[in-house]
Amino acid sequence: MEGALEAAGAPRATADTLSGLSAHPDARVRARVARHPNTPVEVLGSLAAAYPADVLANPGLPLMRLARPNLLGVFPADGVIALLNAPGVPGWVVDSALRHEDYAVRTALAGRSDLSAERVAALAQDAGWQIREAVARRDELPEALVRQLAADDDYDVRKAVASRPDLPGDVLRVLVGDAHGMVRAGVARRLDLPLDCMIQLAADGDPDVLATLARRVDLPRSVREWLATNDQPLVRAAALQAWTVPAEWLARAEVDADPDVRAALARRPDAPAELLTRLAGDESETVRRAVLERSDLPEDAVLALARAPEADIRLHVASAEGIPASVLDALLTDPDASVRTVLAVRPDLGEAQLEVLAGDPNPEVRRAVAYATGTPGRTLAGLARDPNAGVRRAAALHPNLDPEDLGVLAGDPDEGVRLAVAGRADLSPSVRDALRADPEASVREEAARVGA
Fold first, then answer.
1. Domain spans of the chain?
2. DSSP 304
3. How far apart are CA 170 and CA 179, in angstroms?
4. What letter would DSSP give residue 72?
């Protein structure tokens, strides 16, 4: 390692040597390569993303720039962006980024706060819409450029302009009537949207625009009510996402024919417990999954979800924290063995509930009971005599298993069971001696190793 460091810093290191060392596993070696004046330009480009400060400190850069005026043009985009973000980046890097052919570089440049007015103006004329959009999002922008970009051919650029806090009123009203719905929706999000603009947008035919508007609470009462009863489910659901809604809207939404509207109702933070319980038993999976997202469900709602037809919903309930005992009891007889298996290893399961699962027809469930930390000795005794060898192997490992049952398992016909017993440190001398004489070599070795 020290040899590689020395080679990377040697004044006469060749380009071939430095190229090879640029892939060295030690970051210190690669950093020295990035600073070496003999490092080829292409190699510097590959190192710039990880070592921008070292590349900029390379004493050979001035000569390289003279030989190759478009030096950074051969650097990968991520390397140039890293150089742009380096502290104290020199102006020539910014100028080179302005001419770089990769849109990502010019987009990153357009987001810099320290650009000169001339550079900002040049980027506002860029052929790439991503760059013009980045300019439109700048905190500070001359009004002339705001107006220019508000008339841009690309709707993403105009949408970015629509969100600017310094948007002139006449430009705002032009964007209210923009040809693209996403731009009009952007206008509809503005906190300072004038009343006449709200009313104009309320007559829009685009559901996304209306849905954006429907989330507002500063609309005229008649406009809000109209949006809340709109023919489009998207708009009705959006109206339920407003900060506050009248109580009668909640009652109306519960019987809405569209499940997305009822799902929006289920997500409201002020939904009462009785409503959540009813929605948890809704006929639509969409609504039930919306209820499942909540962490404040009443017991009856959780119980309803524990009886949902979707196995993954019931599985989610079975693995959730702090579920009531009534829900645990309901899940004991779940039709899906995966749900019962997850249930079996819960730390809050009572002994009576573990006893029920220990008699489950599925061996995976019984094995999970054998692994569960709270399984009592009397339940383990039954599992130690289970017809499935995998269940007996799990029982053989449990610390709550009675010594008498360990003796039974030491003579089990399955060598995996005997191997599990042999690995225990709490065996009586007679049981360990029996296992040291086991016909299976692995069992004998395990018994001898643990008992040594």
1. 1-114, 245-321, 336-400, 402-451
2. H
3. 16
4. G
d(CA 9, CA 221): 74
Yes or no: say if 147 and 121 are a contact pair by the CB < 8 Å rule. Answer: no
pLDDT at position 452 is: 61
pLDDT reported for residue 138: 96
151: how many CB neighbours lie within 10 A of its CB?
12
Cβ burial of 147 (10 Å; 0-12, 13-18, 19+) is middle
Between CA 107 and CA 128 the distance in angstroms is: 9
Chain segment 203-255, per-residue pLDDT in tens: 999 999 999 999 999 999 999 999 999 999 999 999 999 999 999 999 999 99
Q: Where are the alpha helices (DSSP H) in 100-217?
A: 103-110, 117-123, 129-136, 143-150, 155-162, 169-176, 181-188, 195-202, 207-214
Q: What is d(CA 10, CA 18) in angstroms, rounded to the nearest whole number?
A: 10
For the entire predicted model, the pTM comes to 0.79
**pLDDT tens digits for range 291-314:** 999 999 999 999 999 999 999 999
- Give, as one character, the DSSP assignment of residue 336: -
> Based on C-alpha coordinates, what's the Rg of the chain?
35
Residue type at position 390: G
Coil vs helix vs strand at 335: coil
Locate the DSSP E strands across 34-164.
none
Q: Are 103 and 131 in contact (CB under 8 A)?
A: yes
What's the rounded mean pLDDT across residues 408-435?
A: 94
Q: Burial of 75 by CB count in 10 Å (0-12 exposed, 13-18 middle, 19+ buried)?
A: buried
User: If you average pLDDT over residues 268-274, what whole number do you get?
Assistant: 94
Q: Which two tokens stand for residue 188?
A: 């509809």
The answer to whether residue 2 scores a pLDDT higher than 80 is no
String of b and e for 251-288 (b: at least 16 CB within 10 Å)? ebbbebebbbbbbbbbebeebeeebbbbbbbbeeeebb
CA angle 328, 331, 335 (to 5 degrees): 170
Close Cβ partners of 265 (under 8 Å, ≥ 6 residues apart): 240, 250, 253, 254, 256, 271, 275, 279
Handedness of CA 359, 320, 302, 325 (dihedral sign): positive
CA angle 38, 44, 50 (to 5 degrees): 135
Q: For residue 345, give both structure tokens.
A: 């290893």
Q: How confident is the model at residue 376 (pLDDT cuts 50, 70, 90)?
A: very high
Whether residue 106 is predicted with pLDDT greater than 80 in this model: the reply is yes
Tokens of 310: 């979707």
3-class SS at 143? helix
Give the DSSP letter of residue 71: G
* Straight-line distance from the first to the last Cα atom of the chain, in angstroms, rounded to the nearest whole number: 44
CA–CA gap between residue 279 and residue 399 (Å, rounded):
44
The residue type found at 411 is G
